[in-house]
Structure prediction request, 232 residues.
Amino acid sequence: KAGVTQTPRYLIKTRGQQVTLSCSPISGHRSVSWYQQTPGQGLQFLFEYFSETQRNKGNFPGRFSGRQFSNSRSEMNVSTLELGDSALYLCASSLVPSGGNTGELFFGEGSRLTVL
Amino acid sequence: AQTVTQSQPEMSVQEAETVTLSCTYDTSESDYYLFWYKQPPSRQMILVIRQEAYKQQNATENRFSVNFQKAAKSFSLKISDSQLGDAAMYFCAYRSAEGGSEKLVFGKGTKLTVNP
Prediction:
């Protein structure tokens, strides 16, 4: 069974540009979450989606946006890139929203974004 | 808002010995889940062990066990018979059981080195 696939794995952009990152969840998983990982701030929650609806959003500026498609694949977009956006962006999927259960999150290997 | 604190940025252990990683958290909720995730260098994050707050019994997964002290809001991870493959960043994480959100709140992580 294929794991969570993130593309691209590495990318370099310059300030002011925009970037789109893609995440394909494990087959059958309908919930997708995104996290930003930096050495200074650690892992921070960006947003989560279920059935094409954003269920929760972290404390990030409006330059960060995302969406989920009917096949559960998700994309996140960062516009007007800043140097501080350089990070590893992690996507995670789970079978269903947890609710009362302890659904495991399965993480992808991440997309490493460098902003010059 | 919930917070998770890992007070040990780095730890080291000799192969075959036991090491304990510390984690404390702050929450006003009574029902929640706690997790330990492992992130090997340049590899994806994987779940090591999870604990439901309503369960008094400490979770165990093979060589990995936790010491969950709900009143003290403490959730430490013990790794027994340490192996070279255990070397990684370890993250403690909290998830609310309310609202069905997948959002994880992570600690800053502990880098574990295993010495042969």
Summary: The mean pLDDT of chain A is 92. The interface with chain B takes residues 3-4, 31, 33, 35, 42-45, 48, 55-56, 58, 90, 92, 94, 97-100, 102-105, 107-110 of chain A (CB under 8 Å).
